[in-house]
Amino acid sequence: MARIGILPLGRPTFDVPFAEENLLRMLAALGRTGHEIVGSRSLLFDAAQAREAVTALKAAKPEQILILQVTFTDASMAVEIANGFAVPLSIWAIPEPRLGGRLRLNSFCGLNLAGHALGLNGRDFSYLYASPDAAGIDARLAELLAGDRRSKPVPLSPPPEARGPGAEAVAAIRGARIGRIGQPPEGFDTCHYDKAKLLALAGISVEEMELDTLFAGAKSVSADEAAAIRGDAAALAGNLDTVDQDQLDRSLKLKAAMEEIRRKGQFDAFAIRCWPETFTEYGGAVCGPVAMMGEARVPCACEADVYGALTTLLLQKVADAPVFLADLVDLDEADDTGVVWHCGQAPVSMAADRAKVSATIHTNRKMPLLFEFPLKTGRVTFFRLSQARGETFAVIGGGEMLDRPMAFTGTSGVVRFDSGAKSVLESVMGAALEHHMALAYGDHRDSLRQAAGALGVPVLEL
């Protein structure tokens, strides 16, 4: 038996009591393994707590490190932990019930971010995504701690032939401009980029601005401009009166400011640092305005994800339709489905029932404007221009959006991937992919393969 050092990670903006309940169940399952378990039994909410726990754990001389990814966190703590120990590293993340309420843990997204960052750092790791109460959990934990669930690089196909509509789409977006407003949040390695590489890849230029540029523009928007945008928003969701009106007004003014920035800079897409400052410093969500911009074919990537903006821009051109840049937040092998989600910034044309689109508030930050609805049924294509493990390639997949109840508040859809949930999990973790994937309705995989050929990049079939 080995000495296993545990570090349970959490973030206080999620459901802490629910996280603590799950942590207790995780600890109980680990207690049945027969290994010696050392380390913190309490959630570590910030870098200072994590560093203190790491220091204490080093004195115990663990033979393995197990990160308990109890809620979403950015990847910074996982990378620091990995750098602090020269022993095998594992991450255990847990699903939560699809009950139609808020994402209480969002554990999978934390695992996704950590996996990508560790891949960029060349750090091997093992992973497990399973409930502590799942059937067979003891056997799966035994495999994890024996090193039998390692993240394995996924083979890529060579760049396809550059031809057809996909190559035409690449030619059409060359010369496009992306406006990056603010910087990626700390620990979001998934959203970093290199200007020179992007220009060489797709002929795309980026202009970087501070968030204050957006906020100052919004504060100068006239009452008449804000009223006109409110009319547009009311045509999408009839319950605007149910949210805080001052916060709603500030939110809507962000759209006017983005439109003005776009006009002056001739931007084709944006990558926006959407939190926390839009809430903590400005006082209104940018999610609803982003949904409206996306519907108008000006894609806006969250968390200042420049490659996400390029991805949506190219998929939009291929599909000739609005695109949703989503998080993959759950994979259920037994049901063979996944859930794609974001807080409420999807184009409303993707709603299952346009008449039931609802204005709402951000689940963690409690401010409007967001649009809430389940995604409509139908064929969907997934796409990402990835920089995982330091290599540029195209991720292309397909699936069927199912007629299921809304899994989580915001915008979400239950999808059955063509390759199956188990295969998608292995690909996401093995390739150490980014957490954002773009989706559009219809089957556009052949054209996207052609586009990959025009860009000269290999392909991972998701």
UniProtKB/TrEMBL annotation:
Domain L-fucose isomerase C-terminal: 342-460
Protein name in UniProt: L-fucose isomerase C-terminal domain-containing protein
One GO term describing the cellular component: cytoplasm
PANTHER family in the cross-refs: FUCOSE ISOMERASE, L-FUCOSE ISOMERASE C-TERMINAL DOMAIN-CONTAINING PROTEIN
GO MF annotation, one: L-fucose isomerase activity
Organism from which the protein derives: Stappia albiluteola
Assigned keywords, A-Z: Carbohydrate metabolism, Isomerase
Domain of life: Bacteria
Lineage: Bacteria, Pseudomonadati, Pseudomonadota, Alphaproteobacteria, Hyphomicrobiales
InterPro entries named among the record's database cross-references: Fuc_isomerase_C (IPR015888), Fucose_isomerase_N/cen_sf (IPR009015)
One record GO biological process: fucose metabolic process
